Amino acid sequence: MALPSMPPQDILVERPADGVLQLTLNRPEVRNALRTQTLREIAEALAAAAADEATRAVVITGGLKFFAAGADVRELAPLGPDEILAHERQRHWHTIASFPKPLLAAVNGYALGGGCELALCADVICAGTNAQFGQPEISLGMIPGAGGTQRLARTAGKALTMQMVLTGLPIDAQTALAAGIVCEVDEPESALARAVELATIIAGKPVLAVLAAKAAVLRAWELPLAEGLAAEKKAFAALAATHDRNEGIAAFLEKRPPRFTGR
Question: Active-site residues: which are they?
Answer without folding.
Answer: 71, 114, 117, 137
